[in-house]
């Protein structure tokens, strides 16, 4: 490289400067020397080498003490390059007749330190010109230049908006530059997450280069422009008994720490932090909720509906009624929305609501009226009715001779609740029969039966007793030699249905026969009446009174 037409050596600060003597060694060379020129042009010799004795001598120059080395080809090396080494050096080759000189220019370069943004502002306020920080880069040579960036784009100076001031200081002992660039800036709300950085541009041996600082993000303060109220809840709906947390927030930075909360039923706003908690809310908490800044500016509102569900079962709890009585049952619902109602009896869902115009034993059981609001999670109510149907013991006795004709089965059919205790006795002797067998007690009914083989006529007594009454019924039973048949022994539901069907068939046949007889009688009566009319006409025409009497007598007999 050449500088002003001269040969130039570019060196890095701290490295070794190597300067070849660019002269061709002449014949008869006596010695070679190196010198540098002072700013005023006067020379300072620093190194000497004899071509004959091969010895090297270094002049006593403090700046180059122990730093010089002169090789056999007269190449001069200077260790630990300094900024002060930027001079014009001259290689001299001397013969008896001539002195040849060739100058070399030395340029020294020092890369600056990575820039740092120092004295950073704690925070920035919008619409206010303030010092953002200082970009500092040290130990540069030659001096460099500092540029500020925001989000990767150059910040150009703008009057009273972007103010940049660059200072360059030289260390007199080293000759190195320290550059400090301060940035004054008017931030906006959009600068809240902006990345600010600075870049130093410097020159090195190979040309222009840059080094960038680490980016910095500043806390930008700006006033609140909007207030928002929220309902913090684990569910999307609120029901009675829940806790409600209201949260009010402002979009300023820093956000407001206190607000006024306006609650339905409260005349004045309640001063609180950004949250307001209501516990165990009731339905009267339904309404519009508001919050604002403490100066009552910038307000927001929301509506909260507290869902409720009431269930009234009449009657409820344990109810005891007598068989045959009426029992009106009502399940009344009051809710914030349409509720679903259903009934359960003894763990089985019912198709219709219970209604009792005449209570039967099978009506007894545990009834549950349950209602839910499907749109509100966890809102469910239920009430229970335990219905007890009581009845005095009712007895019906039947008898039949068994197929083997060796015994007779006597059955005591019993109804009642609580379940009656059954006892058998033989009238006359008063002895108690303990060999009775009982069927299962279902819907207040069961049967007790005995098998006997009486040798003579006897009277059996069935006694049924519960807390309400004692009922006694007797039945005469003939000796085993006399067959007897009464109603079927076991009258379960299926057999009862068959008997009822047969009874209905018989009644239908009898009614049909009676209707047929009635129709036949009416037809006969009409026929007789017509015959009487015809007889009267004949009597009139013939004028024979005696014959008419005979005809009437005959007709009367026929009618009879």
From TrEMBL:
Transmembrane segments: 505-527
Biological processes, Gene Ontology terms: adaptive immune response; cell adhesion
UniProt domain Ig-like: residue ranges: 103-212, 223-305, 324-386, 393-473
Keyword Cell cycle: no
A Pfam family that the UniProt record links to this protein: Ig_2
Gene Ontology CC entries for this record: axon; dendrite; plasma membrane
Compartment annotation: Cell membrane; Cell projection, Axon; Cell projection, Dendrite
Domain of life: Eukaryota
Keywords: Adaptive immunity, Cell adhesion, Cell membrane, Cell projection, Disulfide bond, Glycoprotein, Immunity, Immunoglobulin domain, Membrane, Repeat, Transmembrane, Transmembrane helix
UniProt protein name: CD166 antigen
Source species of the chain: Eudyptula minor (Little blue penguin)
């Amino acid at each position: 490289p050449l500088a002003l037409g001269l040969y130039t050596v570019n060196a890095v600060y701290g490295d070794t400067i190597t300067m070849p003597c660019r002269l061709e060694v002449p014949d008869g060379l006596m010695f070679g020397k190196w010198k540098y020129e002072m700013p005023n042009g006067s020379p300072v010799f620093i190194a000497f080498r004899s071509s004959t004795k091969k010895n090297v001598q270094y002049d006593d120059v403090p700046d180059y003490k122990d730093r010089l080395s002169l090789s056999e080809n007269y190449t001069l090396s200077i260790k630990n390059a300094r900024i002060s080494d930027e001079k014009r050096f001259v290689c001299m080759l001397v013969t008896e007749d001539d002195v040849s000189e060739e100058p070399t220019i030395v340029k020294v370069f020092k890369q600056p330190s990575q820039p740092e943004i120092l004295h950073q502002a704690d925070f920035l306020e919008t619409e206010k010109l303030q010092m953002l920080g200082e970009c500092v880069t040290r130990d540069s040579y030659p001096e460099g230049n500092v540029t500020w960036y925001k989000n990767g784009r150059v910040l150009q100076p703008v009057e009273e908006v972007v103010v940049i001031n660059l200072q360059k200081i030289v260390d007199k002992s080293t000759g190195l530059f320290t550059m400090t660039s301060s940035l004054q800036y008017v931030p906006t709300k959009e600068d809240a997450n902006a990345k600010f950085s600075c870049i130093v541009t410097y020159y090195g041996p190979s040309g222009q280069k840059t080094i960038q600082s680490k980016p910095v993000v500043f806390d930008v303060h700006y006033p609140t422009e909007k207030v928002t109220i929220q309902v913090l809840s684990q569910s999307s709906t609120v029901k009675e008994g829940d806790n409600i947390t209201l949260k009010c927030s402002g979009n300023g930075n820093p956000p407001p720490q206190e607000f006024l909360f306006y609650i339905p039923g409260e005349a004045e706003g309640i001063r609180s932090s950004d949250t307001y908690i209501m516990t165990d809310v009731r339905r009267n908490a339904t309404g519009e909720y508001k919050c604002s800044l403490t100066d009552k500016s910038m307000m927001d509102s929301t509506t909260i509906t507290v869902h409720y569900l009431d269930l009234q079962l009449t009657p409820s709890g344990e109810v005891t009624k007598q068989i045959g009585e009426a029992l009106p049952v009502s399940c009344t619902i009051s809710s914030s929305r349409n509720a679903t109602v259903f009934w359960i009896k003894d763990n089985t869902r019912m198709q219709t609501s219970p209604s009792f115009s005449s209570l039967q034993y099978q009506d007894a059981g545990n009834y549950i009226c349950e209602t839910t609001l499907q749109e509100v999670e966890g809102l469910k109510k239920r009430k229970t009715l335990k219905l007890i149907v009581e009845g005095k013991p009712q007895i019906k006795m039947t008898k039949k001779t068994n197929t083997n004709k060796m015994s007779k089965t006597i059955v005591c059919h019993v109804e009642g609740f609580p379940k009656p205790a059954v006892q058998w006795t033989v009238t006359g002797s008063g002895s108690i029969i303990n060999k009775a067998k009982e069927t299962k007690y279902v819907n207040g009914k069961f049967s007790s039966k005995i098998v006997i083989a009486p040798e003579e006529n006897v009277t059996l007594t069935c006694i049924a007793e519960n807390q309400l009454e004692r009922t006694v019924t007797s039945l005469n039973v003939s000796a085993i030699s006399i067959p007897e048949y009464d109603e079927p022994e076991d009258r379960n539901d299926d057999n009862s249905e068959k008997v009822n069907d047969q009874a209905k068939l018989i009644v239908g046949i009898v009614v049909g026969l009676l209707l047929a007889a009635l129709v036949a009688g009416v037809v006969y009566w009409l026929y007789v009446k017509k015959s009487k009319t015809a007889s009267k006409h004949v009597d009139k025409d013939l004028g024979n009174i005696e014959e008419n009497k005979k005809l009437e007598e005959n007709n009367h007999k026929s009618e009879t």
